[in-house]
Amino acid sequence: MRGTTHLAIGGLTGAGLAIALGLPQTMSLISAISALAPDCDRLLGLRHRGWSHSIIGTMAIALITAPLATINWWVWGYCWIGYTIGWLTDGLTPRGVAPLPIDWRLAGWVRTGSSDDTLIGLASGLLWVAIAIWPQGGGCTTTVVQVSKMRIAAYGSQLTILRQPCITLDGELTIRRDLSPPDAPDKITGDMLLKSPSVASDWWLEGWLLVVQYAQQTHQSQPLLPTWSIRLPAQGQ
Asked: What is the mean pLDDT of residues 72-87?
């Protein structure tokens, strides 16, 4: 299949998932670009449509991009989902692909560069654009569940990072230089602590944070994925 067809089908799949999961439509760009990756086997000197066009290739990409999961779970997921869509699309061609390590190939009728290839790519691309720009119902509703103030005086490694209902941390924490590595900054914001919890593992944090816990729903009444939240150690730990 043409690269543009891979791009369009990858983007369309990502756009559909974004609606189902309540994610922003910009996520479809990740799956679209990832759908082009299987055909990079030629650039790497690998046999075209070999193991890179199979479940083994998907597992390899999932492992290579695993560090992204520490930043955003769905960015990582979209990478290997888009990659899988890329090689599955080649299963529509007469040559097909071997998705499993057995003597069986997934094959179809669409010849690369044919009118069918062009039509599938064009239709997928138009649907992708339509879904991406179409207003998504009533949007999102955010309800504040709880607001509290927390005192922190502990090393960052003592703060347990968990998946909890949506939460934001507002405020700044001071970092004691005498108890922290020399390269530690003077302060860290609550937002920075949520985004990069591992960075502060060796820092001694002191101060107050305003914790706002909230619930968020899409127009389809599906809860959005929670952000990283923070659980403080028990007093005296």
From this structure: 94
